[in-house]
User: Fold these one by one.
Assistant:
Number 1:
Amino acid sequence: MNHEAIKQVIYEQHAIIRSAVINERAYTFEPNANYILTGLRRSGKSTLLFSIVQKLIADGADWNQIVYVNFEDERLVEFELADFSDLVEVSSELSDKTPYFFLDEVQCVDGWERFARRMADAKEHVYITGSNSKMLSSEMEARLGGRYLSKVIMPYNFKEYLTARQIPYNDEALYTSKGIGRLKKASEELMHDGGFPESLDFIDKRVYVENVYQKVLLGDIALRNDIRKVTGLRILMKKIAETICSEISYSKLYRVVNGIGVKISKDSIISYIEYAKQAYLLFSLENYFAKFTERESTPKYYFEDNGLLNLFLINKDTALLENIVAAALKRSCREEFYYLKSEKTSIDIDFYVPEEATAIQVAYSILDTAAYDREVNNLLKLADSFPEAKRLCIVTLDEEKMIQHHGVKIEVIPLYRFLLER
C-alpha cells in the first residue's frame, strides 16, 4: 500500500489523540505487555488506546513512534493482510526508535491475527481493539497463542460515570445531604440512560443508544452471522428484555416468539442468543442450586448496559434496577455469580456471589409491607437453610437501614452505595 497514504492516516490520528479529553477509566495496563481489547461497541476501547498513547508521550516517547491506525478509516478499505508489511516499513521511516503499534478495529482486515502473532514474536509493542463476535477474548487468546493479554471493555461503571460528569464521591460527598442527593440522582440517571461514554455528550441519550443498538443488532449479530430473518431476531431481543428478573428456557422463548406469528426454529433461537452474548449485548446467569444441565436450560438474561434494556421498557424501573445490579456484579465478579432458586425450600434469591458469600435481593422499595415481607422472608429462609451465605443484602433505589431478626442481619443498601462498592 502507498506509504504516503498510510502516513497521512497516522498523522491525522495523532492530531485527534492530541486534542482528546480522556476521562479516567478503571483499567490498568502493564507497560511491557501486548493487549487486545474487546467488548461492546462504543464502550470506549479507542479512547483507552488514546489514553495509553498520551501516557507514552508524557513519559518521553516521540509522536513518530506512535503508529496508530484505525481500520474503519475509509482510506484503508482496500487494506489487506500483505499490507501490514508496509505498516512496519512506514514505522521505520517515521522513526529509528522503538515503535508502538495501535491497531484499532483490526477485525476489518481478514487474517490480521497472523500479523499480530508475528509482531509479538518479534517483541514489538502492539495494542489491538475489535468489536464484533469474531473478537471474543476467549477465542483470541487461543488464536494468538497467549502472546497478548485480553481485556473486555464495557460502558462506564458508576465511578467512571461520576468522574466523567465531575460529580464527587469522596467522604464529603458521602456524608452531606447535598452530596448524597447528587449521587442518588446520578445513579438513577445511569440506571435509565446507561453508561456509553459518548452518550454523555447528547441531550437525547436514547437516540444515541438506539443507534448503537441498531449497529450491534444489524452489524455485529445479523450481518456477521448471516441472519436473514432480522424480524425474528428483533422480536427475540424484545421478548428477552421483557423477561428480565425471571428465568426462561429456550422452549418457552420458542413458544412466546412463535405465538405472536413470528416463525423461528428453536435451534435458531439458541443460536441468536449465543450471537447476542458474543456481541456483548446480553449475558446469562445460572441457578446455583440446579444441576448443570438445568443451569444451561433455564438461565436468567440481562443486558450489558441499561440504556440498551431501556429501549424496550416503559415504566419498568424494577427491571432496570435489577439489570444494573446484575451488570455491576458481572464487572466486579466476572462470571462467578448466580441466582438461587429452589422449589423444595421456596427460596428465590436474585443474586449470589460464592466468593464473597453474599446473597442479594433487589427491590425498588420495601416500604410497602408486602414487599418488605417478601424480600426479608426470602433472605431469612436462606439464612436458615443455606449457611454458606454470610452477608445478606437488599438493594433498593434509595432506602438504607439495617434489619435484625433473631440474630440474622440484613443490610438494606441504596443503589448508589451498592454501585460505589463495585
Number 2:
Amino acid sequence: MDLKPSQSLTETDVSRGLKLVIGDGLASEAMTTLTGGAFVVAMAILLGANNLQLGLIAALPTLVNLFQLISIWLVRRFNNRRIVTVTCAFLARFPLIIIGIFPLLWPEWTTIELIIPILFFYYFSGAIAGASWNSWMKDLVPGNQLGAYFAKRSSYMQTLNAVLSLLLALGIDYIRDHQPSMELNVYGWMFIAAGIFGLCGAIFLSKTPEPQVYMTKENIFRLLRGPLKDSNFRRLLIFNSAWVFAVNIAAPFFTVFMMKSMGLGLSYIIGLTILSQVSSILTIRLWGMFADRYSNKTIIAIGAPLYILCLVGWCFVGIYSQLWPNLVLLTCIHIVMGFANAGINLSLTNIGLKLAPQSDAIYYLATKNIVTAVFSSLAPLAGGYLADYFTGRHLKIDAEWGSPNWTKAFHLVELHEWNFLFAFGALLALIAVNRLSRVKETGEVEKDMVVRIMRSTIRHNLKQSFLIGNLMTGYSTIKNVFRRKFF
C-alpha cells in the first residue's frame, strides 16, 4: 500500500479524494453512532456509572485532544500526514472490538471501571489521527468550497446517523422489554460492528491522495506559541473556549436527564435526536452557502442566541405532570437546537481553518484544539460534580391567581439536579457570545443583513414547493376575494 504524498494533485485526484473522504465520513459516522451518544450513556447507566463517571465519559473525546502534540511531532518527523492518520485510525478502532468482546465472553468482568480506560485509548488514538487529518483536509479541499463541501459531507453523515440510531433504539427497547438480560450483549455486538466500520473508514483514508508539505523544524513549543501571539486568533480561542465550556457543562446530561428523571426509553430519546438531526440536515447546506458567501462569524452570531434559548427551554422540561406537554416542549427544543447547531459547528470548524495561515495550519489548528479541549473536557466533569451537589436541592417558582369564586395555581419552573446545569450553561453561553464581536474575519457582514437575506431565501424556496406554493396562492386569492366583497 503506497501512502506517500504527491508533489502535486490533478483535478481528478482532488475529486477522487473528496469522494473517498465522504466514504470515510460515513464509515466513521456509523462507528460513532454505534458507540456514542445515548447508547454509550445507556450502557454506562446499565453498568452503574455515577454522575462523575458519566461526566468523564463525556469529557474523554475532547480531553485527549491535549495529546495532539504527538500528532504534530509525528507529522514533522515523517512529513506524511496520511500515514500518521491511517495508522492511528487503525489503532483507534481495535479498542472498540475489545470492549465488544468483554460482555459476550466475560460479562462478570465488564465494569464501567474497565470500559473507561479502553475508551480513553480509543479516543487518544483518534485524536492523534484527527490533528493530522485536519491539516490534510486543509490542503486537499479547495478553499472556496470549504463550507459547501463539509456541509454536504455532514448532511450525508447525519442522515446515516438518523436512520441507524432509530433502528438501534427500537431494537434495544424491544430487548429491554422482552429479554432484559441480553441488553449488555447487544451493546457488545454494537461495539464490535463499530470497530469493523471504523476499519473500513481507515481503508478509505489510505486511498485518499495527500499533497506533499514540508514542515519547519523549529522548536515545537515556540511554534505553538505563535498562534497565541496572533491577537485575532487568540480572540477566537477565547470565544471558542468559553462557548464549548458553556455548552458541554449542560449538553452531555440531556440524555441522562431524559433517562433518569423523565424515564423516557431510548426510542423517545433517539426520535428526538433524529428530529434535531433532520433539522440540521435540512439547513446545513444553507448555512454552508451563507458562510462561504458572507462569513462564519455572522453565522455563529445568528445561531448562538437560538441555542441559548434552547438551554433556557430545558429548564422548563419536566415541570408538567403529563407526558405530552413535556414531549411537545422537547420536540420544539430539539428542532431549534438542530437548526442552530448546524450553523454553529460548521462555522466554528471553518473559521479556524480560515484564520489559520496556509504554511502553519497544523500548528494553529492543533493549538485551537488543545486549548478548547481543556475547557471542553473540564465542563462535563464540572457538570457531573454540580449535578451531585444539586441532588436533593431544588428551586420551585409558582404563581397563583385567586378570586372570590376560584383559585388557580400555575407551576412556572422547578430547578433541580440537571435543570440547574441547563440554567448555568445558558448563563455562561450568553457571556461567551459577547466575546465573538472581538473576532475579525475577512468578508464579515452585519448579522441583521444576513438574517434578512436568509429569510428571503427560505421564503423563496418555500414558494418553489408545489404544496406550499399553492397554499400561499390560495391564501392570497381568498384574501383578495374577501377584500373585494367587504371593502
